[in-house]
Backbone:
């Protein structure tokens, strides 16, 4: 691969944290507005679940534990959590909210778990996927500046406050309470400062506040937001921690909001990729997941999708409308329009496509040409080998400089088992030849066009397996005469 690669991750600020925290993620909501069988936090933004994005950011705080409140679809959510716990080496403990009755009830379900630690707790809603390490660390700094209040409410001013709870401050500018959109008066609705649903606070205060909550709202739910008014009423220290970057705090309550967040996430990643020296013809239609690495001076045409652990070398050219999943593409390789590459390794200076499909475990050495409507699977192709048209190569080991005639097929499947085809260096197959595996074509051997090959072809031989051609002179002429044409 090229030497100059876009090195992720999105941010890596080195803000020191003075004492360890614990993190509480609220992920038990029914996600009613999503209208989905899948729990909301398992929906994805740019290839990662909402909960993965939140947990990754939370893990960057090095918490003593991440406690996650789960309920609907809990088996699926818990499976995702255990994957993430291993992936990120962070302790994650799910707690059950039996019957989700609001954010206050969610925090209440987690009390006995978070009370096991004396550490300050950072509460993050599970549906805030754009939250970054940088913003979380900034919040921790703001919390310190505010003198570690009993409860710090993270607020921001998005372009439209619609749908969020509003921060109500008094004349002196001190926060008094939070009022939900649906419980707002006309004038409250005009307030632009909103509650992000991220909080930093003391476990003791949170326990006390949650015990006091009553369902006094349009929804008949227990709102954690009411902990603010409770804190003010009981003369506790409550502060609003105002954060600039509202996008990091945006929540996804509907699929339309999810798609807007997906777009923002994609824009962030694409911007970094371009800054690292890669040309994107049309960032709006280019999907690059965060684990992808791309070498300098590569060119990605419109409609490029790069998923998973894909690595592109330097000067790779993708014409466009190409999907590459978990694959490696070497320097200077050109993938022509409309191709798909999965779990494969392509070396440098290859030509792929247009309309080619490299299925899993295809390994192409330098300078291989794979052309129109060619499919490969679990096959190794040696240097300079060419399959330019209409060919299927499956379970094959192919040498160097082999030429596949148009329409060559490795018949690898007998209805029960897959069999191997071996083709030596410099061999050549004629058009429309079928190589019935298991079979070996020796170095330099030729397969005659239209042959069905079932026996091994010796080195440097010609093998032909088709009906003998007959020439019947004047047959057509006689026929025309007979028919009077
Ligand atoms: C909440 C806040 C609102 C804030 C907004 C920010 C309340 C009452 N409102 O509203 O002030 O502006 O977030 O995005 O807190 N959850 C549970 N169990 C439940 C209910 C919710 O775990 O019983 C979880 C959800 O999975 C979600 C999070 O808590 O991840 C927030 O819940 P949601 O219903 O999305 O609250 P909002 O209406 O967005
Ligand atoms: Ca929400």
Residues:
């Amino acid at each position: 691969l090229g030497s100059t690669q876009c090195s992720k991750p999105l941010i890596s600020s080195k803000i020191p944290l003075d004492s360890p925290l614990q993190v509480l993620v609220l992920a038990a909501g029914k996600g009613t507005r999503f209208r989905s069988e899948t729990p909301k936090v398992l929906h994805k933004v740019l290839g990662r679940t909402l909960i993965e994005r939140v947990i990754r950011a939370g893990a960057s705080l090095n918490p003593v534990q991440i406690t996650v409140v789960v309920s609907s679809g809990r088996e699926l959510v818990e499976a995702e959590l255990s994957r993430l716990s291993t992936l990120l080496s962070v302790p994650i403990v799910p707690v059950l909210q039996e019957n989700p009755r609001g954010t206050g009830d969610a925090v209440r379900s987690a009390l006995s778990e978070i009370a096991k630690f004396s550490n300050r707790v950072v509460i993050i809603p599970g549906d805030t996927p754009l939250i970054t390490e940088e913003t979380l660390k900034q919040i921790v700094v703001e919390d310190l500046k505010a003198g570690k209040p009993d409860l710090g409410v993270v607020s921001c001013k998005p372009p439209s406050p619609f749908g969020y709870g509003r921060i109500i401050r008094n004349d002196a500018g001190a926060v008094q309470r939070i009022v939900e959109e649906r419980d707002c008066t006309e004038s409250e609705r005009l307030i632009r400062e909103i509650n992000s649903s991220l909080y930093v606070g003391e476990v003791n205060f949170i326990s006390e506040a949650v015990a006091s909550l009553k369902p006094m709202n349009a929804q008949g739910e227990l709102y954690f937001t009411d902990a603010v008014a409770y804190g003010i009423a009981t003369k506790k220290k409550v502060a609003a921690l105002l954060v600039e970057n509202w996008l990091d705090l945006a929540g996804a309550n509907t699929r339309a909001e999810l798609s807007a967040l997906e777009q923002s996430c994609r824009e962030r990643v694409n911007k970094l990729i371009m800054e690292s020296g890669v040309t994107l013809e049309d960032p709006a239609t280019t999907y690059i997941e965060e684990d992808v690495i791309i070498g300098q001076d590569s060119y990605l045409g419109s409609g490029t999708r790069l998923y998973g652990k894909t690595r592109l070398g330097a000067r790779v050219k993708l014409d466009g409308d190409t999907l590459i999943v978990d694959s490696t593409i070497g320097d200077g390789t050109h993938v022509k329009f409309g191709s798909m590459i999965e779990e494969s390794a392509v070396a440098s200076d290859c030509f792929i496509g247009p309309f080619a499909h490299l299925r899993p475990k295809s390994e192409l050495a330098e300078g291989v040409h794979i052309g129109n409507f060619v499919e490969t699977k679990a096959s190794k192709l040696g240097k300079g080998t060419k399959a330019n048209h209409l060919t299927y190569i499956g379970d094959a080991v192919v040498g160097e400089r082999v030429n596949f005639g148009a329409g060559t097929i490795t018949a690898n499947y007998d209805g029960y088992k897959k069999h191997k085809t071996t083709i030596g260096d410099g061999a050549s197959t004629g058009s429309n030849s079928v190589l019935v595996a298991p079979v070996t074509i020796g170095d330099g051997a030729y397969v005659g066009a239209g042959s069905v090959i079932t026996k091994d072809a010796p080195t440097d031989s010609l093998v032909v397996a088709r009906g003998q051609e007959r020439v019947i002179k004047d047959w057509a002429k006689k026929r025309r005469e007979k028919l009077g044409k």
User: Anything to note?
Assistant: Residues 1-15 have pLDDT under 50 and may be disordered. Residues 255-275 form the longest helix (21 residues). The longest strand covers residues 194-201.
